Amino acid sequence: MRRVAVVASAAALALVAQVGVDAAAFAARSSPVARAPAPKPSASGVAQPAAGCGEQAGDLASPGTAAPWAQQVLGFADAWQFTTGQGESVAVVDSGVSGNQQLSGRVTAGQSLTGTSAGLDCVDHGTGVAGIIAAAPGRHDPFAGVAPGAEILSIKVTDHEGVDAGLLAAGIMDAVSDHAQIINVSDQVGNTPALSDAVLFAARRNVVIVAAAGNTDQQTGSTGPFYPAAYASDPAAYPNVLSVGAVDPAGAVPSFSRPVQTGVSVVAPGAGVLTIAPGGTFRQQDGTSFATPFAAGVAALVRASHPKLTAGQVVSRIIATADGGTGAGAGRTGAGMVDPLQAVTAVLPAAGQQAAPRPAPDPVSLPRTAAPDRFTRMLAACVTGGALGAAGLVVVAAAVIPAARRRRAPPENAGPKTPRPADGGRPS
Asked: For a Cys-Cys bond, which of 100, 225, 268, 400 suits 294, CB 3.0-4.6 Å?
């Protein structure tokens, strides 16, 4: 999926002049080309070409001082206390990934099916996608990718706007063969048998494919459906495909993708999205191309924190934990905005990783006690009466006996009695 260009503002241009980054020197210092593997045949049989490409630097020298709106909305830094996506390889099947300090040491320039190296980005597309997935936090800027611990595998399938369906299919095959766990496809093509076979090959190898739902084609006016994202509408055959749509800062589907007929699994920020560009620069991008890597980064977080999940379960978990209350796109937002923290931490049933609907409470039935027969009632009455009578006797006895004892006892101040004479006379 190709981006919709955004013209830099006067303030941004002033910022470029103020900071003054030497893009050429920075690119020479941080480019991964020197670490690229030796040329080798790709899985499609196309040899790795030699390096040589004119890079397009971004129009911003700095990302500014505040966190970009997409980072604020998604809050993926909250998930880093659990995982940063370490150990996961995310293939960017795109226009190549040029060197950038925030990706330094974590980009492998893999197969290229064009005339230039996979370590060079001629159209400033694949580099921005890779930055959203895995850029490490900078020392003096707030921009970061979703999974800064993940590795990027650059598979180059184009040197210009748009991509050939056959090359895209071959690039997916190469990414799987190079052991990627997640494949980001920010391009749109029609359905072909070769593309379907490549996606099914990835499914058999337990690889997640995160694909852009697509924008309205600016040249032909086509609204799709676009592939490989449209395969997500058949989860029984393609359980490993996640289709990603875009929303703007207001949560609405942007006009460039609103008419598109591709089914959407989830959405992510895709309008005015800040990301890195070749030469250590930055650029704001529009399109579902740049919504897709947010979801691919979430997939890396999920695979790192839940390594036993299958590709289909990773897709289901991202869908099940999305914020369904986000978006206003007349059914174009799928399950809602991806939620990185919930995708990592939510407790879900193991089967399918989707919570079953809660059943309605069952009625509570209290059994009635059987009525006793007449004899039982009479016996109970007699026993009760006897018990009451006995209790009454105890009370009476407790009151009478102490009173009688008090009457017989002499007063405490009475002296000894004078004995009477034996003759009955008075004493002398």
From this structure: 268
